[in-house]
Amino acid sequence: MAYGGQDGADPAAGAAHAQGAAAPDGTVGAGLQGPDGVARREGDRLRFVGAATRRIARGIDLDEIVLGLCRATVPTFSDAILVYLRDPLPVGDERPVGPVVLRLRRTDRLRPIDDLTGAVAGAGAGTGTEGAGAAGAAGELDFSQLPLVGPQGDLPAAELCEIRPGGALAEVLRGVRPVFGSAAGAKDALPELLGSEHPVPRGQRAILAPLRGRRRVIGSAVFLRSPERPAFEQNDLLVAAQLATHTALGIDKAVLYGREAYIADELQRTMLPDSLPQPTGVRLASRYLPAAETARVGGDWYDAIPLPGSRVALVVGDVMGHSMTSAAIMGQLRTTAQTLAQLDLPPAEVLHHLDEQAQRLGSDRMATCLYAVYDPVSHRITIANAGHPPPVLLHLGGRAEVLRVPPGAPIGVGGVDFEAVELDAPAGATLLLYTDGLVESRLRDVWTGIEQLRERLATTAQLTGLDHPPPLEALCDDVLDMLGPGDRDDDIALLAARFDGIAPSDVAYWFLDPEETAPGRARRFARRALTRWGLEELQDSLELLVSEVVTNAVRYAERPVTLRLLRTDVLRCEVGDDSPQLPRQRRARETDEGGRGLFLVNRMARRWGATRLSSGKVVWFELPLPGGHDRR
Questions:
Q1: How far apart are CA 470 and CA 491, in angstroms?
Q2: Residues 6 or more apart in contact with residue 329 via CB below 8 angstroms
Q3: pLDDT tens-digit series, residues 154-190
């Protein structure tokens, strides 16, 4: 007996068909006798196994591997196949908690069934070639005449099968080796898989092959032949063993890869911000898209970090590589960037420390990063770049501009300096930060993609109208629409910032010498600002809180104290001094003369906080505006 490639089987498997004469039953080489005939048949068998295992190995995910087994064996090796896998499939060293259950994963057959009449097994019911009955000439089951009762409408089989400890099926699977359906143990094992209501093929027309992965049996395959075809031979058990081994190892690999990709994807997503902050003077929107399935896990990230003085840090970065390691490094670099931002370090200094952190993580830990700080009061933005694609600024009039920022070297290179530039950030403009997955792919280089992005932004702005900027969320969606079918080689992080700014008329700023008279002067300045803004209703609360915070600052300051009031959707007060020691709220005792200032701030303010700076600290609090002035 030989194996010819048909109906989707690997073309290499058909080489045997070309070398032997086809017998009336379709078996290649069936008429060959003697040593030459045996050698020819053995060669055909080896060629088939090689072609079939190559086809199975081509599969990447679970379904492709199982499909490869089915297409490689039907009809070349068998007329039908049933593939059962454990449900759920174990991963790695996982141990099953409950009973072991097999689920029918896929079935495949030589030809569709035209006669859906019920089959009655029994000797002499007819011949399989005439289609007059459901039994072969020798009383063997002709499964091609069975009704379509399987879960996929292919073959009669049980959808679920629980492996009973000590049962016949458990013993066959424990033995690992393929067995004929007519073997002693398999006679009782097959009904467990096919269902007790379905007849079992007689003779050597069924092979039950356990699928054993690296650590345990993960399923089984049943190969079936109809009465019109010669029964399986002893050597066919070796073929089934090879097919089962390659399939099981491929499934194991696919399950492990799928779990790793899932964990890495979840790891990466959990390290991205759940939501963006709502800092004063800027509106934010973001998008993240994983790469295609072939390279889905990457190290792209974005972040928006509120800073003292109503500023905000905008960060986008890209760790090189696609793996769980890339996602983990991304999380460490993002955490480091957040910590450095809270120290209010200049952008170039932040990149310098990130570069040092990347070198500590390993000599090959490379990433690109762009770090920008926007100040809504001065309407300026400071940007430092570490080998990242330049941002694009969309002006209110519809002009899109690729900002000229020093490219810098990627972080992790070591021994390089980073340079920052300060640029205008006019109200109504939109800054777009992105990773290279948006502008670079196998079909286009990075600078071509950047130019296409600039043109896309300009076109979107013109369609919206030049009097007002396009909606931020819709703008992000429109940018992603520029991606073509072949442009998803890498994951994509996108951060858009719409600059609203804070008008100079809504800002009041003073310097106070660290003297005993400073709290009184601060109260007078605060009253004047409230009168100018028509917020006299807040006078008592603001004077009390300003007096407490300024008093605490003067106690430790050696240089002038700063006092700033901002009127936005809230009234925000910021007091800065040169002492790095952060205030700590505590409950004062009845005999204490002090210690109640922060308690009052905590009770009366809508929010409050303290941030350590490189040159000291800032203590701030917010008061809600009266009803007629609330801008929310």
A1: 25
A2: 299, 319, 358, 361, 365, 367
A3: 455 667 777 788 788 888 888 888 889 888 778 878 8
Task: Please write the tens of the pLDDT for every residue from 449-480.
Answer: 999 999 999 999 888 776 788 999 999 999 99
pTM above 0.85, yes or no: no
Q: In what order do the strands lie in the sheet with 561-567?
A: 507-512, 561-567, 570-577, 616-624, 607-613
Distance in angstroms (rounded) separating the CA atoms of residues 384 and 405: 7
Alpha carbon 38 to chain centroid distance? 54
Burial class (CB in 10 A: 0-12, 13-18, 19+), 599: middle
| 75 preceded by a cis bond (ω within 30 of 0) | yes
d(CA 528, CA 548): 18
Residue 382 burial (CB count, 10 A): 19
pLDDT (0 to 100) of residue 487:
59
Instruction: Give the pair of three-digit tokens for residue 18.
Output: 């070309």
User: How far does CA 526 lie from the centroid of its chain?
Assistant: 51
Distance CA 154, CA 113 (A): 9
Band (17; pLDDT cuts 50, 70, 90): very low
Specify the DSSP element, H or E, that contains 485.
none
| Separation of alpha carbons 349 and 418, rounded Å | 8
Mean pLDDT within 41-57: 82
Distance between first and last Cα of the chain: 82
Is the pLDDT confidence value at 132 over 60? no
**Biggest CA-to-CA distance, the chain:** 117
Judge whether 410 and 387 are in contact, CB under 8 Å. yes
Give the per-residue SS3 of 396-427. CCCCEEECCCCCCCCECCCCCCCCEEEEECCC
Q: Are 333 and 319 in contact (CB under 8 A)?
A: yes
Determine the length of the chain: 632
Beta strands in 454-531 (DSSP E): 492-499, 507-512
Which two tokens mark 391?
Answer: 């941002």
Structure tokens at 408: 């810098």
Give 573-627 as a 3 state SS string. EEEEECCCCCCCCCCCCCCCCCCCHHHHHHHHCCEEEEEEECCEEEEEEEEECCC
CA 626 to chain centre: 45
| Residue found by looking up tokens 């092959």 in the block | 209
- Please give the Cα distance from 521 to 547 (Å, whole number): 9
